[in-house]
From TrEMBL, chain A:
This is GPI ethanolamine phosphate transferase 3 isoform X4. It comes from Apteryx mantelli (North Island brown kiwi). InterPro entries: Alkaline_phosphatase_core_sf, Phosphodiest/P_Trfase, PIG-O_N, PIGO/GPI13. Keywords: Endoplasmic reticulum, Glycoprotein, GPI-anchor biosynthesis, Membrane, Transferase, Transmembrane, Transmembrane helix. Gene3D superfamilies: Alkaline Phosphatase, subunit A. The keyword Methyltransferase does not apply. Belongs to the PIGG/PIGN/PIGO family. PIGO subfamily. It comes from the Eukaryota.
TrEMBL record, chain B:
It comes from Apteryx mantelli (North Island brown kiwi). Its main location: endoplasmic reticulum. The keyword Translocase does not apply. Pathway: Glycolipid biosynthesis; glycosylphosphatidylinositol-anchor biosynthesis. It is a multi-pass membrane protein. The lineage of its organism: Eukaryota, Metazoa, Chordata, Craniata, Vertebrata. It holds the Pfam family PIG-F. This is Phosphatidylinositol-glycan biosynthesis class F protein.
Amino acid sequence: MQRWPVLLFLAWVCFLFFAGIGLFMSGFLLTRIELAHSSSCSDPLTPPPWDRQSLPPGSCWMPQRFSKAVLVIIDALRFEFAWFNPANVSPLPYENKLSFLHHLATSQPRHARLYRFRADPPTATMQRIKGLTTGSLPTFIDVGSNFATYAIQEDNLLAQLVQNGRKVVFMGDDTWEGLFPKKFFRSYFFPSFNVKDLHTVDDGILQHLYPTVDGGEWDLLIAHFLGVDHCGHKHGPVHPEMAKKLTQMNEMLRSLVDHLGNDTLLLVAGDHGMTETGDHGGDSEKEVNAALFVYSKTPLFGTGPPEEPEAVPQVNLVPTVALLLGVPIPYSNIGEVMAELFPGDGDALSAALQQLSVYHVNAKQVDRFLHSYSLVAQDLPAEQLQHLQEIFSTAVEEHVQLLAQMQEAVLVFPELESRLGNLISRFQLYLREARAVCTQTWARFHPLRMVAGCTLIAASCLLCYVTSELATASDSFYRSCLLYPLLWGLVVAVLLGLACTFIQEGLDLLLVSSWAAAVSQVAFFWRWWGRQPKRARVASSQPPLAAIGLRQRLRAWLGLAFPMGILLFRCGAMFSDSFVVAEARVAPFLLASLVVLLVGKLHWDGRLTVPEGPKQQLLGFSSYRKESWYLLYLVAVLLVCLRLSIFFHQCREEIPQCRPSLFIAPLASLRNTRAKNLFYLLCVASLVGLVFVVRCWLRHYGNLNSSDPLVLFVRWGFPLVVICIACYWAVASSAEDSLGKLQELVQVALVAFPWAVYGLVSVGLLLLLCNPMTVFAKDTRESAGPIVTPYLGVPSSEVDFLHVIPQIYRRMQESLKSRLERGSCKATVAAYGLGSVYSAALVIALTLLGFLLLLLHSERLSLAFLLLFLEAFVLLHIHTRARSLAGDAEPFSVPWHAVISWLLAASQFFYSTGHQPIFPAIHWNAAFVGFHLDHSTNLLPAVLVGANTFASHILFAGSQLPSAPALALCV
Amino acid sequence: MKEAEIKRLLAANLLCVFSIILTTTVPAFFLDSFSVLGTHLTWLCICSVSISALNIVLCLVLKPNPSPKRSSFAHKISRFLKCCIYFFMSCILFHVIIVLYGAPLIESVTETFLFAVLLSTFTTLHCLCMLGPNIQAWIRVFSKNGAMSIWDNSLQITTMCSILGAWFGAFPIPLDWDRPWQVWPISCSLGATFGYMAGLIIAPLWIHWNQKQLTYKSR
């Protein structure tokens, strides 16, 4: 078998899958078109003036109310953090810490007010910043660009301020740097991505905050504190560190207020909340519920505060701040202005009139946006737009009419007031409905693309199945079945590309590649079909043979029915939301069922019992073979592994009663020192146990005898890696301040130990690539020729295997024969570890990869990794045992149940290493293993986090097929 | 001969099905607020006890596998004790297997155990009645071509159906329908019961239709 066609074929199959997945994603992940328009002062949106007030010259849209504003964003400031309950005698670490806000709100009720700030999902910081400045709803697709923050193209608050000659000063989270390049008059950015670092950003801001405020060279000052969020990620909300952090924020606000002038508006906002585990990103109540606090030294509100804090959508901040500062509302804003901040001159009538005109501007701006958006994209439903348009135009008409009547003084006070109230509520209705329509529409899918993508993926699966059936039949298969499809695909791609350039249309790479993939698939199936009848004809010339073939085929299909049925269940489960949520439990359940079914079938076929002899009358279980007992014992171990793996699960917010496994949190979050030490010892013990078992196994099969560099590495490098990991864990899990003066040394160690592991593992892998053989050949002959030609192929390639062993055997035979002939029996050739040539290399590679991935996870998940290796080992053993009991002679055919159980185990351990397919469950900490400071590129953290997330798939897929190690296990 | 035996089998099985239906309705007359879903544990107990009693009575009346030699009283007692131990062991074994399949370990132990008892009643007790405490015979019956009478065939079918039913019963648990029967272990025990009933009905029919193919070797 040549290697290139096979490799090319695999690459082609990969391409097919990628095209299918890409097509599906393009239809599934939500997108929204960003408009490039921006508002300006000259836009004819100003409301009709009323008698007592007209626009002062130089103001823009609305008269400016504050000349300066300070926006303090405390990342992940959940509402409960800011809420002060005096009746609470035993507050949790995060409760009753921002006492200063409470003090302001009670002592100056018309100057200060606390709101519930409803963040729109996704509650990731970058999306929230976008929402807080543009006033629109960032969609799903933006989540993907969280690693590389792109500049905001849409009209936004900062752009408006800069456009109107105001100075914006920023300090804090450096995400803003990417979002608003060159917008800031002055800026102090601090690295945000290291979630373990609680203090760098906050201390940096505090250093610059008060001098800047006192300096006065700013109109809008934004300070984005990250400490609370990072504390949540590192320790969770219920931790003394959180209390410290919030107290620090409280002190910061207290002294900040002292520095503020009378013409300054202070806004303290959380961009999102956090869950009980300190994560965010989803749409659960705790993540969405942030806090907003408004304060000014001049009275802000016309009336006193309501009993219960009001809930305000996050986008509402944008039009409010814009109009208060006297700049145009950003073009794409769909938020509703917070009218109570516009109390007019004092009496109720002027307040209502002022609020009405604010609403009027706001509604006009939203109407303009909806109009231009519907011109660009047709996704907003037309009838709803029509309905909105009607509400808007009648309200505006009535507003104008009302003002005219007031000029003529036809209206008396009570009637006027009720009409004003009615009109305000109609404007509110319009704004709220417009926002609802947008929210609904931007959660919209492309069903056609999704279906096409699914079809492409399904066809690719079928193609893989066909290939797996055919490839063993003929050697020329890859070449013949690859060339035509590839050619066809290329031709179509080129044609489409040419067509696109001719019509002058943008070349959609995704569409072109998926068309190419589809066509090449069709060509493949065409060719496969073309080969099919030939074989049928050959078969039909020999009728009895055909009949046997049919029965055999039928039996083969029935044999397939069990594992394929399980696979079908799993695929079907993907279509049910509930089963997707419960997948963590479904995978082990199905795996257990599959294995028990396998054993049950063996029993049914009578393979487990001793073939019945004529004489013996057996009693009890004694009719079971010894091997059967071993098999049953393995199945029991597997079931126990499956059950234990459930203890490592992370939670999804869909299951509120679920408690996340205690093994997921890093050791640093444990407060009980004794438990911490105990867990630490347990983790190290599991690591040592893993290495010990691997070494024992290798020694048992004689793979540790030679003095190759690889073997030496296994002997000495493995313990070294373990020591490095253990030291890293020790340093990382120690308390933040406990080491005092050694702090600097700790920083060095935090970087040095992971790098030592990275280095050692890569050396090991390199050695493995150079010479994967761990066979030790002892030759006592005089002439020491090469025993074996170097092994080159992929481990599962049959030909290589068949190539190496006979060679060695022949060599041995020859030498023995020659010795015997010569009559000297002393010299012999002995090869150690020959039976496990393949599996030894794989076991070494897997252990090395295992070390690497272990390092990226939190300490206590090493137990899960130990379980993973144990389960994989047991699974392979079960399959080899089952095959030898079933009497399958072919060593290279892999049964389907083995493949499917392998797949189920991979997805089972995805969950059992503390992952869930949701954004908040991503272990971002993995990006900082070995990198204490911020990353210069986004590639490396992406690789590290990706490796962490897909650890189980890497380990299970890394061992290729179950066949290869299984081969040697049975020796 | 065979026809008559199939009829006896059918009658016995229908009696079992009927008694299961009775266990769901009759206790409501004696117990306040009894319902299969509401007081599931009570129903589990009642169902297990009545099915066991019925099975034992049927076994004594019908004598499906009559032993050739008459045995002493002491021998019978020892057999009975053995049966009890086997039944208890199978309950424990089922409990362990259910937990290994993902049932809660510490919470709702009673529920899990009663479900295990129900499953044992449907499978192990049936086997004990038919085959006695003879593992060798069990292994023979549950393998291909191992059945030696229609009773053995019926045993195969009902046992497999019960276990399959319990397995399928686990599938609705994750669904978010918020139905009272989705609570552990109601769906599984109901699945096992329906599977058992289906097995009881299918067995005679299947044997009737496959009469020609079924040839029993006699020992």
